């Protein structure tokens, strides 16, 4: 057999589960849980004692991490619950399109153009205002169960432009920059 017959294409999420099991009795406040097939942050946990005909039960109150809706679930404490894999990644904001999509710079230097602006009004205003003012912005993107959403913003200051003039001198241009030689 030749080497060509044994090459496999790597897929980022090939076979990767979007959740993992965790015993209900071990899930705590500020952790994550899947309620009604939605990734939620646990805001309240209460446990009922073992009854005459059953197990101790955990009552979970969670907030959907993408739409902010409150969800509740009751699970026997010895049973497993699905817990979402939640990641948070920072990207530099490059552009905002007229139809509400953002262009983001990844760590590898590629662009990510498939995310819409957030629906949270305060965060949306901060992003649009900062971008309009020409600030360098870093957005935090939260990802869970195949969904992604901008969930935070960091202002890393005004944009600086470094260029070399015809005499070979390097200059830094920005609101508070001074030329250097």
Automatic annotation (TrEMBL):
Keyword tags: Hypusine, Initiation factor, Protein biosynthesis
Region Disordered, residue ranges: 1-21
GO biological process, alphabetically ordered: positive regulation of translational elongation; positive regulation of translational termination
Residue span, Translation initiation factor 5A C-terminal domain: 85-154
InterPro entries, sorted: IF5A-like, IF5A-like_N, IF5A_C, NA-bd_OB-fold, Rib_uL2_dom2, Trans_elong_IF5A_hypusine_site, Translation_prot_SH3-like_sf
Pfam families: eIF-5a, IF5A-like_N
SMART domains the UniProt entry points to: eIF-5a (SM01376)
Superkingdom as given in the UniProt entry: Eukaryota
Biased composition annotated in UniProt, kind: Basic and acidic residues: 1-12
UniProt cross-references to Gene3D superfamilies, sorted A to Z: 2.30.30.30, Nucleic acid-binding proteins
PANTHER family cross-referenced by the UniProt entry: TRANSLATION INITIATION FACTOR 5A FAMILY MEMBER
Name of the protein described by the UniProt record: Translation initiation factor 5A C-terminal domain-containing protein
Naturally occurring in which organism (per UniProt): Chenopodium quinoa (Quinoa)
